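Q: Predict the bound structure with pyridoxal-5'-phosphate.
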Amino acid sequence: MTSQVRGVQLARLLGQWHALPGRRRSPDYAALAGAVRGLLADGRLPLGVRLPAERELAEALRISRTTVTAAYRQLRESGHLASRRGAGSWTMLPGTHRVASTGLWTPLDDRDMIDLGVAALAAPPELLPAARAAAEDLPRYLGGAGYHPTGVIELREAVAAGYTARGLPTSPDQIMVTSGTQHALDLVLRLALAPGGNVLVESPTYPNALAALAARRARITTHGLATDAAGWDADLLLGSLRQGRPKLAYLIPDFQNPTGHLMPAELRERVVAAAHAAGTDLVIDESFVDLPLDGTELPPPVATFDRHSRVISIGGMSKPYWGGLRIGWVRASAPQVQRLAAARVGVDMASPVLDQLVAVHLLADAPAIVAARRTQLAAQRDALTDALARRLPDWRVTAPRGGVTLWVELDGPISSALARAAEEVGVRLAPGPRFGLDGTLERFLRLPFTLPAADLAEAVGRLAAVRYDLDRASRPRWQEPAVIA
Ligand SMILES: Cc1ncc(COP(=O)(O)O)c(C=O)c1O
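A: Predicted complex:
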């Protein structure tokens, strides 16, 4: 795949690059090179794309070609650009980088980095005993070939029992175990969406869901969520379903990522009815359903209102238990599960047996594990909101009633610039635009509260310092001169 970014496109991505912190101290070419490195670090400029020719970028940015030449030279020297004479220059990363769990590239030697790009907890203490007990169970499976495309029966029973306990009677043949919720989404899209199909998603939404949709070349329309506690606008959401008649809608009604919103029961019922009338399949991501905080009561699962097999629910172990388990699932009708399992043999055949057995043991201990997670998350959320109120009082925060993230409204459209500057002081951020489609959401930042309180307070301190520096950065010097006639 060869792709190329044109001068005007790169200029748009670079935005206010000349206003980055420290600008007063660094020459233009270094600031430009730094801004390109920042775009690579936050994933907005992919690896292996051809950058515009020097002259083209100089014209798009209205700066001298020598500045671009010097910036490209610096990027080559730092290992961020490979050039072949006469052919062009391609983005790359120096060998000291690895792919982070966010899918982004991060430095290898980043032990001091506080990673606020990932919204997931470290493993609970119960994980190791669960793994040992699972190994003891393994002999029961070793006599067979070990391929279970829908999952081992014990785990399917445990997951089905979880739904039934939430008021949604479910049998094990309605469950397919997957290698994580993301895998569940990918499989469902393969089955339910032809390439180029029309999909409705929330904005902001989970970036890796957008990546899965992009892989299906989906045509995406968005429903904008309000920043206040209401979240979804019922009329607009139902109107988008009725008028747009998308093939599929992907929604996260339980402590939405990134906003933390919880969809009320009444809207759940109306969304299912509207989807049925419009011929839309609903993919409901329940990744955070186990994590209500402060005793918040959960509305019924969206699938409770489904009479026509319109709702496919996906979920998994990553948020309440551990992402490293890579265990997720799909809840659908039994025939849909059979079709998904058939599609899966062309992808990965089945999930690992041992990991599924670990999941069975963790689910057997669910009430205790999940209660401890909620207590921990509520305390960390409060530590984060307190630190923000003290150090960055102009940022607006609505504390969510569950989940693991704050969706912060910043005091200006500075999210990407802040993320680049924060990287310099050892804080990794996921800037607002990563949660949308079109480079908007610059006024927003997702902050997870999955790290210990002390790390969160330290990170906020560093962000406050960097925020102050952004203001002190010099104004662009090459604004059009006023005509004097
Ligand atoms: C809404 C949502 N869906 C899916 C995932 C991916 O989960 P998993 O690790 O189970 O693949 C995440 C993880 O952040 C998420 O927030």
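A: Residues 119, 180-182, 206, 252, 257, 285, 287, 316, 318, 323, 328 surround pyridoxal-5'-phosphate (CB under 6 Å).
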